[in-house]
Amino acid sequence: MKPIIRVQNLRKEYPVKYESVIALDNISFDIMPGELCCIFGTSGSGKSTLLNQLAGLEKPTSGQVIIGGIPISLLSEKDLAIFRQRYLGFIFQSYNLMETMTALENTALPLMFKGINKKQAIKQAREMLKTVGLEHRLSHYPKEMSGGQQQRVGIARAFITKPKIVFADEPTGNLDTKTTLEVMDMIKSFAEQYNQTIILVTHEKNLSKYATRVITIADGKIISDERKDKSNE
Ligand code: ADP
Ligand code: MG
User: Fold this and answer.
1) Which CATH superfamily is domain 5-228 in?
2) Which pLDDT value is given to residue 181?
3) Partner residues linked to 36 by β-bridges
4) Are 18 and 185 in contact (CB under 8 A)?
5) CB atoms within 10 A of CB 76
6) Which atom of ligand 1 approaches the CA of 220 most closely?
């Protein structure tokens, strides 16, 4: 099997006044298809920077990220946007739902961006929200839902297009312990069902039990990288 993501000598510096911050210091690793990879690190260790590079949201200072054989930093902004729409899904700590749209409309949005007609998109969104246990909240706006409910909409929206890779930046950062477990169970079960690759960034050590791979970073460097043997679970 070929890696789905290859990270090669990735470096990211941010210029700040008279010096520069080295947020990622020549990182290299491969991710295999179907891995649920947790990237751990304390605040400021470079997790979000790494995720932004992996998803092509920011350009690296040097080095490259190759997804499915494509060096993404070489794509134009337009091609990158199309690439993201086709192959990537995103889950955010603060949910990032559209405030003026209902749960149903928020979930249907990525399908409509892909050119699927509204009726079909809404139909699929309804199914998806049912899967995450929100069939009774279809016409609620984000403000009318709890954090856990909003994140379930976020998950439905991320998985509705069945993307090859889903990136999640601290997806449970604003949730209580019980809701955290529910949300993680949902992410894991979608990923297994569709054989997707998940890259999840977190500072919460207890989420490692969901992972098949745990990469720990500190000061922009990898300090450990462990694959978990499924037979030991
Ligand atoms: P984490 O997500 O692990 O908390 P980040 O990736 O956000 O860490 O940040 C890593 C380092 O890079 C930190 O020292 C942070 O201050 C710095 N940094 C992140 N983004 C910027 C930016 N846009 N400009 C300057 N420094 C930044
Ligand atoms: Mg962060």
Assistant:
1) P-loop containing nucleotide triphosphate hydrolases (3.40.50.300)
2) 95
3) 198
4) no
5) 8
6) 10
Rounded to the nearest whole angstrom, what is the distance from the C-alpha of residue 60 to the centroid of ligand 1? 13
Which residue has its alpha carbon closest to ligand 1 atom 25?
A: 14
Q: Tell me what pLDDT residue 12 has.
A: 97
CB 43 less than 6 A from any atom of ligand 1: yes
User: What's the rounded Cα separation, in Å, for the pair 195 and 201?
Assistant: 19
Can you give the pLDDT at residue 232?
Answer: 47
Phi-psi map region of 30: left, alpha, beta (phi>0 left; psi -120 to 50 alpha): beta
User: What is the mean pLDDT for each group of 10 consecutive residues in the chain (233 residues)?
Assistant: 96 92 97 96 95 94 96 93 93 95 97 94 97 96 96 96 96 94 94 94 92 97 89 48
Amino acid 202: pLDDT? 94
* Separation of CA 49 and ligand 1 centre (Å): 6
Range list of H helices, the chain: 47-54, 77-87, 103-113, 118-131, 147-159, 177-194
Domains of the chain by residue range = 5-228
49 CB less than 6 Å from ligand 1? yes
